[in-house]
TrEMBL record:
Residues 120-283 form the Flagellar assembly protein T middle domain. It holds the Pfam family FlgT_M. Transmembrane segments: none annotated. Keywords: Cell projection, Cilium, Flagellum, Signal. Residues 1-22 form the signal peptide. Residues 328-402 form the Flagellar assembly protein T C-terminal domain. It comes from the Bacteria. This is Flagella assembly protein FlgT. It comes from Marinobacterium weihaiense. The keyword Cell cycle does not apply. Coiled coil: none annotated.
Amino acid sequence: MKYFFLLLHVLLLILLPPTAAAITVEAIGQAPYSRQDPGLSRQQALQRAMEQASIQAASWLSGTRQARNGMLDIDTVRLRSMGKVSNVRVIDEKVQGGQISLTILADVDVGAECHDSRRETAYRKSLAFTHFPLEQPADANDGALHEIQQGMATLLAYQLRQSSTFNALDAGHLNIIGTPTQAPVRLLPEGTLTTLLHDSEQHRVQYLVSGVIRSLAAHHAPGPQQPNVLVDLYRQHAPEHGYHQRDFVLDLFIHDAFTGSLVHQQRYHMTADWNADSHDKVGFGTPRFWQQPFGQQLRAVIRTVSNDIQQQLICEPFTARITRTRDKTVWIGAGSLDGLKTGDRLSVYRRLTHYDSQMRPEYELINTEHSLTLTRVQPTQARGTLDAASETLNIQQDDIVIAH
């Protein structure tokens, strides 16, 4: 009878429609505890708890449960997909024997997978994290956190590389935001509003990720006056006044670099305690910064942003640029490091350029209904054969191929 139910669950996995199923899961995550960086320890435990929640949800749907040392494991059935974890609530936290343990409740959506949701078959899409300007630069004066504008790109690129197959580049020195107060909308000289990025293709990545830090404001206004011991003691023991808290509000933008189109935007808002003296130059990303409750909570926001980007782009098609053509042979600017293999077939698209009234280029992708079969793949480039001469199809440099 148990084999009948196991078979029934497997059949349900195959026959269920591709819409996601949401379930609430309780899971435990553990990590070594470091007194020097408790925030990092907590982040690692939370990440492992979320991974266990995803595994348990997928395991519940697949009908297999294997418990080993108190942690769920999967042996007999290869899971079709891992779920998207959201609405995470920490219900228990303890430190014992050099380990921190977190118990969470989380909602997990388990849906249909795509080609790139599995590491063994995924193509490595490239994206660049650019500058994150402050809408109000004075917000960073408290704690001397101005480096957050470039440091966010570094942290997000690292997080995404660690947790996904994306080739995430740190381009924090590159500011593609026009006026932060208006972003992602830009006012063109003739008065037209647009969200398009011009010249985005020159950066040689598939996506450009930017954003504006709308607020980094403390809930109190630090002034030049000398510290008052009595006032400081009162504020320290009256946390209900929210004196020590500060905000972090981020608007995130993702642009398709081949067309310049805005494909996704999302807002993140966090409020946490900032206990450093207002005249203390803590600095962004320093050990003292991460020891602050504000820094610890920001780690969780960075992980959330990284997860959201992955969920948003994971099933988007892989795209590469054509670098050279000769008769039926075509070379592209991607190779084995991007997950390409000999025999892969890629759809060929022409990239048509249109010009607006101010002679600014805008791009349109046209499917030629022809494919390129890869015959030789090197680490950073590949070549293949078309089923017709490139001249006949008018295929040329800077056209693109797409793996659907």
